[in-house]
Amino acid sequence: MQFKVNEDRLWANIMEIGEIGGTEKGGCNRIAFTDLDRQGRNLFKKWCEEAGCTVSVDGFGNMYARREGRNPDAPVVMVGSHLDTQPTGGKFDGILGVLAGLEAICTMNDNGIETDAPIEVVNWTNEEGCIFRPMMGSEVWTGLLPLEDALKMRAEEGWTIGEALERIGYAGDAPMMDGRNVACYLEAHIEQGPVLEDAGEAVGVVDSTQGFGWYDITLTGREAHAGPTPMSSRRDALMGMSHIALEVKRIAEENAPGMGTVGKVAVFPNSPNVIPGRVEFSADLRHPNGETLKAMDAEFRKVAAQIAKEMELEVDLELTVLRPGVMFNQVLADRVEEAAKATGKSYRRMYTGAGHDACNIARFLPTTMVFIPCRDGISHNEAEWAESEHCAIAAQVLTETLVAAANGEIDFGEA
Ligand SMILES: [Zn+2]
Fold first, then answer.
1. Structural contact between residues 305 and 315, judged by C-beta atoms closer than 8 angstroms
2. Is the pLDDT of residue 139 over 70?
3. Both 206 and 246 in a single domain?
4. How far apart are the CA of 48 and the centre of ligand 1, in A?
5. The pTM is what?
6. I want to staple 21 with a disulfide (CB 3.0 to 4.6 A). Which of 29, 131, 222, 408 is the partner?
7. What is the enclosing helix (H) or strand (E) of 171?
8. Ligand 1 geometric centre to CA of 127 (Å)
9. Is residue 217's pLDDT more than 90?
10. 398 Cα: distance to centroid of ligand 1 (angstroms)
11. How far is the centre of ligand 1, averaged over its atoms, from the C-alpha of 274 (Å)?
């Protein structure tokens, strides 16, 4: 291709929006549904309108910046990610994908490139799930979670998502996936792992996802005084949780490259001299192979029940979400790989370890992701960092793939 994205413009945009919720340590705190979320959205909207796009918003606050095609009725080519961050998040996770999509549009404008099909840059609502749960924007958009149910979800402070979206001015009526004609979806993102950086590679062509299971577990024992209660007669819920947490680690390690995490624990009554009578905690199991993930799930349930029994605890284990991994569209991945090759940098095909809106969308539409390295593989951290050159490469790969897709040059076949 003749055209090149504007690296400086993309970098300046990433840095500027990073100031909204910018932290002292150079990270970003822009949680969904907050005033800072509103400010970030407003800035993105302004940039999109300056680039000639029409911005619409759906009932869950997902934003669509549309660059019209020669044929407005042609299936739209979508690209995007999310502008919300973790409370101690970085400037790149999500933001890169949205702004690289916008950069692709600006590059088309600069070079007078028209496309047959329209292109839309999307900002998905509440991808990070610091509140409620992750990837909600695409979950609602695809119908995996009904909009009415999502809008009724209530925060601990008492407000509902519906109220929050009204409050920040991002409750619209643009159609969800069912009411649209969409050709495909692309998402650029920092890798959030060390693979590309360790290998000195510039691009990851992401062609599949890791599946995951999320659990809410409550162990109930008996509260008692830490002094007079003999070890043999205790029913200590926290000790039970500790054993189960180690099993999460073991199950993951024995099923490499599986992952296992206990990330959230609440101890009751949480007093230094009371044996914990109740513990509520989370578990997160992941594996790229669906069959292995199912085996990990079965093993986890079995050992959790065993440990509870041995330690005389009651266990209530609820699997809240189980999503097996999915293959992305291989034809689209091949086209992304072609664009990656054209940059002259080294690249690899890989799966995504983290969840993304693309993982929800891939269940319904041709979808692929583009990864770039991030320093030390770190994300969800104020130290998160990506190089300007790599951000531009992501935008370049997106631009070429978007133009090809929007000009009908990619035959998605059945997938
Ligand atoms: Zn992200």
1. yes
2. yes
3. no
4. 20
5. 0.84
6. 29
7. none
8. 7
9. yes
10. 17
11. 40
